[in-house]
Design brief:
Number of domains of chain A: 2
Strand order of the largest sheet of chain A: 3-2-4-5-7-6-12
Shape of chain B: globular
Oligomer: heterodimer
CATH class of the largest domain in chain A: Alpha Beta
Largest sheet of chain B: 7 strands, mixed
CATH superfamily of the largest domain in chain A: Thiamin diphosphate (ThDP)-binding fold, Pyr/PP domains
Radius of gyration of chain B: 21 Å
Structural class of chain A: alpha/beta
Low-confidence stretches of chain B: none
Order of helices and strands of chain B: HHEHHEEHEHEEEHEHEHHHHH
Distance between the termini of chain A: 47 Å
Strand content of chain A: 15-25%
Largest sheet of chain A: 7 strands, mixed
């Protein structure tokens, strides 16, 4: 077993796939610097920089994929998809349906997401629920280096468009680039296991759409993705002392959702707590409740999400993003009846 | 009318001192996240902002602090905003990339190119509500490759909108040299979209002022938009802690971190033929070398000493002005920080 940082694992899996499959090309803003290790191994024909022209290069990425290549298109941040959403919403996601199932666009959009380092509400959004809302898009949000590499490999082998989101708190390189700027005077609440841990010697693809139970429990099921998984695990461990047994389900894939794993985990405890860094309204957290209810599972429900635009000020940012304290309070509220 | 270099220099120096203080606070960890300074582009900002009046609007990029300060917005709330304090300019909600002042019609955005549509909209509102008023968009040359900005130029042309598209060209789009990712010539591009282009020296405050004056007068008198192209150098690079600048300042430490994984990857089996790998390596080395030869190390590319040199004819007045501004900035720092600490 090797140990890797989160982004290092993604790049390593990407390199393995690029060595195996000459159809994989990589482009985006500043890619020659950000992915310099790939550039010197695979050359400038396969690893190239773009102008700040998201609509052009993402839209081109869709058609590049349609015409036989397997592009990885990098967005500087998921927030900037706002500039070029048409390529995903109206083109990549629609192609398979519009062509009667005869044509797909196998591209991977790789984008950093998430907050917790004080960059303000235009640079720290999650947006996976917004993306997963669109039929035809696969949305991946890994929470560990091992999953990140394996899911990148799966994304590269998938025949449709995939959005691969990389949480900046888990990614040492992004956190240094955008958060610290190599300062030693700032600290971030980085989940250690998510930022650096063991990865396989050789990457194998992980099935898309498979959740994993990170922790078994009998009283409440916490469902989350990305950094939220680690916050949930921290609280699940803490409430053990209070006699509360909390399970933690890591979705890993937002869309397609692993409904089977979700329903099993929720049916076991009868209590669902969603921890979702994305916006609360009209998103993943409500969807999870709907899926469980549609399956006829009786449940008590609570959620800890981001309810507003993320404030810039660090204190209020920490209160706005799902944090350990809010998750703890939500668990106590959900299992209160058990104690009585 | 001729430019008043004394007042332009005062604006530039005040902004420089203010942003140097911001840099210190950022390095001390009191300002979070990214921090894009306008140090190096002060002549461009001062020359334009000095000629704005009530009712004029500004669409700012992620580097808008200098423009807001020069526009006359109280620096203490700006600083408190950067510190994330609830009594900051935007309640500590926006931060330096998202600064707003409704009464000054000044709006920032961290989305590259977003100032184009914003300025067009401000100008359209001006046509109805504030005849004679203008809207300014400040952006870098990297933004010129953003569709929405080009579309805004075309729209401003066909609607004859009173807009100044001010392109602060430092030839770097974050870590990418713009020349390598930009097709054609920017002035020709603007003209192709129906917007007259004017080239001005972004390091020369007086020349900038004159160029801006012509464009602003054109807009005020209903003759439509102008594209003002000015070269400058960002003394701190794209943002504070910028990796390429760190390489220049501490090459041994920074290059070691880069070189080891780079070499390993270069030598790893599987991948391109040696020729392609060499081409990739050449690209990386070229980027580092062009940084080491970076104009940021060349003080003649700093607009402040240039303006100052022209004012040496009255050293007593110059000394007086500089002392006054230094005192002003240090006082406002003290009061802004005191409030935060207490």
């Amino acid at each position: 077993m090797r140990t890797m940082h989160f982004a290092q694992a993604v790049d390593d899996a990407l390199a393995q796939a690029m060595a195996d499959d000459p159809r994989i090309v990589l482009f985006g803003e500043d890619v020659p610097l950000l992915r310099r290790d790939l550039l010197v191994r695979f050359g400038p024909k396969r690893v190239r920089g773009t102008p700040i022209s998201e609509s052009a290069f993402l839209g081109a990425g869709v058609a590049t994929a349609m015409a036989g290549l397997r592009p990885v298109v990098e967005m500087y941040m998921v927030d900037f998809l706002g500039v070029c959403m048409d390529a995903l919403l109206n083109h990549a996601a629609k192609l398979e349906a519009f062509s009667g199932g005869k044509w797909t666009a196998p591209l991977v959009v790789r984008a950093p997401c998430g907050g917790g380092y004080g960059d303000g509400g235009q640079h720290e959004q999650s947006l996976w629920g917004w993306l997963a809302h669109i039929p035809g898009l696969t949305v991946l949000v890994p929470s560990t280096p091992a999953d990140a590499g394996s899911l990148m490999l799966a994304a590269l082998q998938h025949d449709g468009p995939v959005v691969f989101l990389e949480h900046k708190l888990l990614s040492e390189t992004w956190l240094e680039f955008l958060g610290s700027g190599a300062r030693r005077t700032v600290q971030f609440d980085v989940p250690a296991e998510g930022a650096k841990s063991t990865v396989p010697e050789k990457w194998k693809p992980l099935s898309i759409g498979k959740a994993v139970l990170r922790r078994a429990g009998d009283d409440v099921t916490i469902v989350s993705v990305g950094v939220g998984v680690h916050r949930a695990l921290e609280v699940a461990h803490a409430v053990e002392a209070e006699g509360i047994s909390a399970a933690v389900l890591d979705l890993r894939t937002i869309s397609p959702l692993d409904k089977t794993a979700l329903c099993e985990a929720v049916a076991h405890t009868g209590r669902l707590l969603v921890v979702d860094e994305d916006y609360e309204g009209f998103g993943l957290s409500g969807e999870l409740a709907a899926v469980a209810l549609e399956a006829g599972i009786p449940l008590k429900y609570a959620r800890v999400c981001t309810q507003t635009t993320i404030p810039y000020g660090r204190d209020r940012e920490d209160q706005t993003l799902p944090n350990v304290k809010r998750i703890h309070a939500a668990i106590e509220q959900l299992v209160g009846d058990k104690r009585k | 009318m001729a430019p008043d270099l004394w007042s332009l220099y005062a604006l530039m120096l005040k902004s420089r001192l203010f942003e140097e203080a911001i840099a210190k606070l950022w390095h001390d960890g009191l300002i979070s996240g990214e921090m894009h300074l306008g140090t190096g582009e002060e002549a461009i900002i001062a020359a334009v902002v000095a000629q704005l009046r009530e009712g004029d609007a500004m669409a700012l990029d992620h580097r808008g602090t200098a423009a807001l300060l020069m526009r006359g917005i109280d620096p203490v709330p700006i600083l408190r905003e950067l510190l994330g304090h609830p009594d900051g300019l935007c309640g500590g909600m926006g931060g330096h990339m998202h600064l707003f002042s409704k009464e000054h019609l000044a709006a920032s955005s961290g989305i590259v190119g977003a100032g184009g549509p914003a300025a067009a909209g401000f100008a359209l509102a001006a046509q109805y509500l504030r005849p004679g008023a203008v809207a300014v968009a400040f952006f870098g040359e990297g933004a010129m490759n953003q569709g929405m900005l080009m579309e805004s130029m075309s729209l401003s042309s066909v609607w004859n909108l009173p807009v100044l598209f001010v392109c602060k060209d430092d030839d770097w789009a974050i870590t990418t040299q713009s020349a390598k990712v930009t097709g054609g010539n920017l002035n020709e591009r603007a003209r192709g979209l129906g917007v007259p282009a004017v080239e001005a020296d972004g390091l020369d405050a007086s020349a900038m002022w004159e160029a801006a004056q012509g464009a602003i007068e054109r807009a005020r008198s209903g003759q439509g938009p102008t594209f003002l192209h000015a070269r400058c150098v960002h003394l701190e690079g794209h943002f504070l802690g910028f990796q390429l600048i760190r390489i220049v300042r501490d090459p041994i430490r920074e290059m070691a971190e880069i070189a080891v994984p780079l070499t390993k990857s270069f030598l790893r089996p599987g991948g391109a033929a040696l020729r392609e790998r060499m081409a990739g390596l050449k690209t990386v080395i070229a980027a580092v070398l062009s940084t080491v030869r970076d104009p940021r190390r060349d003080r003649t590319k700093d607009p402040l000493p240039r303006a100052r040199a022209a004012l040496q004819s009255d050293p007593a007045r110059l000394q007086d002005l500089e002392d006054k501004l230094e005192k002003e900035i240090s006082n406002l720092l003290a009061s802004a920080l005191l409030e935060v600490v207490s």
